[in-house]
Task: inverse folding
């Protein structure tokens, strides 16, 4: 998977950025994910889940950092990675 293949994740974060003025927390991400699931079809949500899993890999630090710098309201990679597994669980339930 290359940088272009993280496009769904980047879109998710860009939309989060447009709808929130603070760094992501699990509560905020779950609230936004609920809205996102209502707006997007199941395949897009499944793609987001797969891309979230990939962002846990250190090989994607640059891509993740770029996205979080643009759309993460200052959250660090380390702090965001702590939110990934709970967010995935929320998205797949």
Result:
């Amino acid at each position: 998977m290359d940088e272009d293949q993280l496009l769904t994740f980047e879109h998710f974060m860009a939309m989060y950025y447009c709808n929130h003025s603070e760094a992501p927390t699990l509560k905020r991400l779950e609230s936004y994910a609920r809205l996102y699931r209502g707006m997007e079809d199941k395949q897009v949500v499944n793609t987001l889940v797969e891309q979230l899993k990939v962002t846990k890999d250190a090989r994607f630090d640059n891509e993740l950092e770029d996205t979080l710098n643009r759309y993460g309201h200052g959250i660090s990679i380390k702090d965001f990675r702590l939110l990934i597994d709970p967010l995935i669980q929320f998205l797949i339930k």
Remarks:
- DSSP finds five helices and no strands in the chain.
- Helices lie at 7-19, 26-39, 42-55, 61-71, 77-92.
- The radius of gyration is 12 Å.
